[in-house]
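Hi D.,

Good news: the full-assembly prediction came through. Inputs first.
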Amino acid sequence: MAIRALVWGENIHERTNEVVRGIYPDGMHETIAGALRQDADIVAETATLEQPEHGLAVARLAATDVLIWWGHKDHGAVQDEIVERVARRVWEGMGLIVLHSGHFSKIFKRLMGTPCSLKWREAGERERLWVVNPGHPIAAGLAEKFELEYEEMYGEPFAIPEPLETVFISWFQGGEVFRSGVTYRRGAGSVFYFRPGHETYPTYHDDNVGKVLRNAVRWAYNPAPAFSALLQAPNVPVDQALEPIVERGPKLHAAGEAGFR
Amino acid sequence: MAIRALVWGENIHERTNEVVRGIYPDGMHETIAGALRQDADIVAETATLEQPEHGLAVARLAATDVLIWWGHKDHGAVQDEIVERVARRVWEGMGLIVLHSGHFSKIFKRLMGTPCSLKWREAGERERLWVVNPGHPIAAGLAEKFELEYEEMYGEPFAIPEPLETVFISWFQGGEVFRSGVTYRRGAGSVFYFRPGHETYPTYHDDNVGKVLRNAVRWAYNPAPAFSALLQAPNVPVDQALEPIVERGPKLHAAGEAGFR
Amino acid sequence: MAIRALVWGENIHERTNEVVRGIYPDGMHETIAGALRQDADIVAETATLEQPEHGLAVARLAATDVLIWWGHKDHGAVQDEIVERVARRVWEGMGLIVLHSGHFSKIFKRLMGTPCSLKWREAGERERLWVVNPGHPIAAGLAEKFELEYEEMYGEPFAIPEPLETVFISWFQGGEVFRSGVTYRRGAGSVFYFRPGHETYPTYHDDNVGKVLRNAVRWAYNPAPAFSALLQAPNVPVDQALEPIVERGPKLHAAGEAGFR
Amino acid sequence: MAIRALVWGENIHERTNEVVRGIYPDGMHETIAGALRQDADIVAETATLEQPEHGLAVARLAATDVLIWWGHKDHGAVQDEIVERVARRVWEGMGLIVLHSGHFSKIFKRLMGTPCSLKWREAGERERLWVVNPGHPIAAGLAEKFELEYEEMYGEPFAIPEPLETVFISWFQGGEVFRSGVTYRRGAGSVFYFRPGHETYPTYHDDNVGKVLRNAVRWAYNPAPAFSALLQAPNVPVDQALEPIVERGPKLHAAGEAGFR
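Then the structure:
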């Protein structure tokens, strides 16, 4: 059964900026979805900011295995309620791939618990991504490095938690470095942040970038049913303890009472 | 110079529940602060929920090296603005130690990015904490294990991110296990979660628990000045690049413009 | 294409101890291989200590995707040269699953760089394995816990490096806990240690154990060609630098010379 | 009480190569020890390859809190027995700081369990070390980056296990990046690898490098007594179990017997 990917695009600069429209005439989300569709085991749809519920209705998220997120100009326009809905789906097991300027998206900051800040410079400089974890599934089929001739610079310190694994580190012409591919788990969901993708450059038409995205979708895919238990904090009654115990000592809670939150 | 610790207590059950008042007549925060004061290199003060700004005014937090957090009954009463203030101080380098039912505090969930849920049972059962990382500074001076004869059970799965390091794992009489001491960094701040401390038992009078808390304060202490740069995302102008580069390609931003957030 | 698994068994107690022979009449390796064969995408063969080169000839290892290792009574009989050969294959990308008493095998200690010691007790006590990382592929399809009614106890501290991820933690009747499922990468190869499997109990006939082993084989499988570059330390000549640089300063090495080792 | 640091130097190139002797007339180990002595809480001595037992007699190691290791030309001359002795001391809690070409030392490879290979180029190019973990104690007092105008290039992939934490990442003029400061724990001992230090350049006279080394000694210092229990695998007799259990099921071992190794 195919992996159901959903590519979320902010879809603003593609409509308001001629340069961006020239590179991504159908929107960045369509180009990204097209890259994913090159592998037959991935079915990719798209959703955008301006749609009702940003295209992320409950039923649609429930039918999504991996969500890919690109946003930049208007992170603030994403409704907090939808952000919480996406976070819950990640905790339940949906994969999440956050791209480039999505480092400042509400959903990424929500899941990281850090500012997710960085340095930046928009000068069309050369970026070289080094594979530092060659056995990681997200690096499968790549050479030891690949280059993007024109990219925006992002520089360290990148205010993220220590990654589970670092897959790519970038070198920039102007003298900076950046952890460009990092993995996390949050609840039952896997999260991958991938740096490249400034909208004035043709990054998502690049073959290596496409391969990374397809690898990442496959890596982040969790075939298990939604793990909704992670959202509860169940009391285990004494008479249902796995090993026989005798209740003793003073108590706050009456039997069967819910805990405080 | 001494480490400035601040023990934050919810201070509700100590005033409303006779059992708790009997064990902690001055409040749990005062008992915890007393345990910290056993080492001369720690100066410990206290703050409570009912105080103005919950006792966490900007200037006070700025003068705090390590914040210890105990709350249970009314996490929701902590103002969101104060939670964000505490999070920023952690990112700047303030240490944070979250105790027991604080797993559901707003600040812990904020920094973890996960539900922080778990199983629980209030039956006064035996907890045995095993040191699984004997070289970690937080385990210094402990034997390979210690026991708390009466404790509330917390059981896995504990919905937290994979810890930087796991220091303690607990065994419970009724058949559960729990990662009872786990470390994180968030921005420039170090975070330690420590499981024991149900309010109807005398946990914070225990010598081993006191030793863990003092070790944790010392481990979480970051003597560097507040690292406020982590809250910014500075543009690096092309003419100030560390290596000479020539600007090229199309641009979104005019020179010197702030980035999108 | 199927994953080529190779189950290595010490095959001593199965031939010399009647209890073990009774449970595993064809050898533990055959029972384990049988559990793997329940999934059509895994092809499982076996190898044993007494075979020439312990059944681990160069060509056979080169044709192995994931090696499963069970040994106990005579770790010392495994030739050092074969251990190095296996280590190199792991670095090149072969998966390795180490079972139970294999914590003291030469290959596991070689790859961990630690003593891999632990506490133990052979009393047929109950072990309960809790899934602490429910979204991890190795836990797919399991309930939140499973039990083995008769098992040998292994207790913390387990002298291993901090795992990449901890998947299972065990509770034992006698009061101990243990990190029973832990993951690592070493070079391009993935390593999983799984605790259960004392030879006097029918552990490898258990359905949950079989599911874990199949999940682990799939997780550890790296379809990429052998990453032999990781065994080299290539000099990058100045005139082949990716960015133009001018050689300067004093040198130890003449151009093209190999480095010291 | 001061931290007892021991700086181990190979001391070959300082005697055979005029350039190196010119920069380090008393040997690199003496320059490094001098940098450590700038802080009053560190007492630094030195040991070299050509001394009996390489200057690492049992009693001397037992009286060492943190060992610093620089070697390059003749890693093979270090006796295997001494390597094992050092490894045991690390597992017992001694800190270890491995410098530059020590990535290929027997002791580092022994503790990592990986090839520890990398790319290299000796061209006196500029290295810029970025602090990616600004709250880490090893980065205390540093700016966000520092430069070494002349250094040997080391490039990724660096075949090490995923670090506990990455503190520094280097940018090189010729287009490579490198994880230049990485931490591990092995047993009760803390390990730090720090990249800079090619012998034909004055790296160990650099102020920032000195600060990193002093910070690292302090971070790696474990004041606890030697944790020799980690080298054992004690049987826990049934009648000494922490919780009452009844022995049952078939057994391999007679009561009190040692386990297999």
